[in-house]
Here is the input.
Amino acid sequence: MKDVRLSDGSLLALSQRVHVMGIVNVTPDSFSDGGRFFDASSAIDHGLEMVEEGADILDVGAESTRPGASPVQADEEERRLLPVVSVLAEKARVPVSVDTTKASVARAALDAGATIVNDITAGADPQMFGLIAERRVPVVLMHMRGEPRTMQTSVVYSDVVAEVRSFLEQRAAAARAAGIEEILIDPGFGFGKLREHNLVLLGRLREFTTLGYPVVAGTSRKTFIGATLGDLPVDERLEGTAATVSLAVANGAAVVRVHDVRAMRRVVDMVSAVMEAKEPGAQ
Ligand code: HH2
Here is the structure.
């Protein structure tokens, strides 16, 4: 696993350990922690607490992407994001990524101190790749079918792993052609995928690592977990999330994007220890 270089020359040491990306939602309608961290100071406190709990990256987002969510205007997104990004960038001791699909919002967040862009549309905004290349920051490219409002309505794949993989390969090539050097890829659990598609993607996550980019897995508290365990509500998906995070790490994920940092840090470290284990005395 190669490390990812940030624009200040520091590294995301993915070769050293699987990174836990803590989710900071500054949205009134987020699917999993809807509105709890909507005001800036609670979002900041929540982010700082996640660093204490072992987060390696904080991912700050202000537009809910849950199925059926409505889009947020750029000025509103910035109004929510920037106060949180600027304080966390100063105080958090870990890199802050901005979860946005808009280049103008990404630019403002980078100016406020974010050092990674997490784009669930993999650069659909025509200005996005140019901005990221110019600022020399890493990007997370995610696969999504359709757009959040409509994504669960037409979900047909003939081979979900091959199709998602080939999309990410193409977007990564486009990002490189635009001059972006540090790229992470993400199959986009829950984004335009049926429950079974998500399960297959998780079971075969290893196949994405052969593209040569670090793989990000964002399964935390998602609907396919609730559905698999008998319609469990979002606040009862911790064990299911732990199972998916374990499998993601066992199948080669370099970064897991999670809400429950304390618990998932332990899950990640436990699975990593097993994967690295050598018999005492063995060569
Ligand atoms: N999932 C969500 C948002 N951003 N980014 C990446 N790279 N991968 C993901 O799987 C991913 C993502 C949705 O989760 P959440 O942020 O909890 O909810 P909401 O979109 O309602 O804010």
Q: What stands out?
A: Residues 4-271 form a domain with the TIM Barrel fold (CATH 3.20.20.20).
